[in-house]
Write a structure and sequence with these properties.
The structure is a single chain. The chain is an alpha+beta fold and about 240 residues long. It is about 35% helix and about 25% strand. It has a four-stranded antiparallel β-sheet. It is globular and about 65 Å long.
Length: about 240
């Protein structure tokens, strides 16, 4: 569970966004849910578009140099994060410069609630997909991935086996997600409590200064009794 607190609302925009993951799961096309469930999803969490100079190496040297660079970068990044990342060579979208992309482990986009047993959507495709991010530029203006951390933090999304997700499927996931989003305009002192399994969350674009905080917690009075009751209900329904 989580508690989101507003210390200062933005001058314009910046609404807190929430969406029912159970309803998103029910609204997605059945064939897409099956593909996603069987193949999982995978995020690229970082792009390092700084390796154009590698192309200046003689062709017979290039594979060895790229292998050594990939190994060094992989070791350095994995020493800093609490999950394993896989570095892959590619071309950055900025100017097709050679880059190393860090991809997180494969994970399921659909989870089962630990108490109720309900399936729910648990996937931030609308935030991570490069294609959907570019689509938003037509509404909110171009995002600036020009230098520094902005370049490094650029993300994308794939199937868990590194296969590409079609534009049609990405657009459908985004459409269903946004159909279920509620815009909550928080003001100073407001607190939103939510179940982080059932409910997805985010924020809208904004102008000005926006200061919010979050506290994560787990466990509550009567938790074990609630879990036992939910399990009994599930078993009765399957009998």
């Amino acid at each position: 569970a989580a508690a989101f607190v507003c210390f200062k609302a933005a001058e314009e925009g910046g609404e807190f966004l929430i969406a029912d993951g159970r309803q998103i799961f029910r609204d997605l096309k059945t064939d897409l849910v099956e593909r996603l469930y069987n193949r999982n999803i995978r995020y690229s969490v970082m792009e390092l578009p700084f390796f154009g100079w590698v192309d200046n190496f003689p062709e017979f040297v290039r594979p060895t140099a790229m292998g050594a660079l990939k190994g060094l970068v992989s070791a350095a990044i994995n020493a800093k994060v609490d999950f394993s990342v896989d570095m892959q060579w590619g071309e950055a979208g900025y100017d097709n410069t050679k880059m190393l992309q860090a991809r997180a482990p494969s994970q399921p986009p659909i989870l089962v609630h630990p108490v109720t047993g309900e399936p729910h959507w648990f996937c931030n495709v609308h935030s991570h997909s490069s294609k959907l991010r570019k689509d938003r530029e037509s509404i909110y203006g171009a995002e600036r991935f020009e230098d520094g951390a902005s370049q490094i933090n650029k993300s994308d999304m794939y199937y868990g086996d590194d296969g590409a997700i079609s534009d049609e499927d990405l657009e459908h996931m985004d459409e269903v997600t946004m159909k279920n989003v509620q815009f909550v305009k928080m003001t100073e002192g407001d607190v939103v409590l939510l179940d982080n399994y059932k409910c997805m969350h985010g924020r809208n674009v904004f102008d000005g200064t926006r200061k919010h905080g979050v506290a994560w917690f787990e466990g509550w009075t009567g938790e074990e009794e609630m879990k036992a009751k939910a399990q009994q209900s599930k078993q009765a329904a399957m009998a």
